[in-house]
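In the lab's daily routine, each protein ends up as an entry in a very long ledger. A line of letters takes care of the sequence, but it says nothing directly about the fold. The three-dimensional part falls to structure tokens, numbers that each stand for a local backbone shape. The outcome of that step, for a single protein, is printed below.
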Amino acid sequence: MLDRKFFAQMLREVSPAEAMPHSVINHHVNGMDYLCLHRSDKLTVKLYLVEKPTNPHSGYLVHPHSHRYAFGSIVLCGSLEHIRFKRSKDGDLWREHYYNPDRKTLTPMDWVALEERAEHHATGSSYWVEPEEIHTLRMQSLTTLIGLVQFGDAKRESELFLPAGQPMNRSEERRPTWEETYALIQRCRALIGV
């Protein structure tokens, strides 16, 4: 299921009206748009289009974090580094926060040491992330398109890790218009040759 043909077919079938309610312009970071191709409690299919992000966090696309759900991703265009973190005495210090997406609140917890391990992923390469894993991305291309299949929530909150003295930067996140959703669908189709 995690291949170019699957996402190409989803892009052929989705309409702007279907995609618009759950899609986001500047999702988490300015320059990263999220196109929702299908959404349910048990399964969500989406694309992330990253083009020249303007507010990278600590050298990463977003701060290290976990998710409430398991998901698989495939690089459909471009390349990236997928960075996994493990708790370690020898790692860099980060302040752990619990994030409640329903209330959009952060609850500060303890300082933890995290050690990173980077995996390079080029077009066609895929990876899997469990809910308890801590990860982030580093972009290696000016334009990167990532396909993602997300499963149902396995926990109520996720974790976000912030470095000392750095607040969580907010992007100019918003819902796209019908016209922006149409343009985003067309841009994604062009990038994977649909």
Summary: The longest helix spans residues 178-192. The chain has a mean pLDDT of 93. The helical segments are 4-13, 16-19, 178-192.
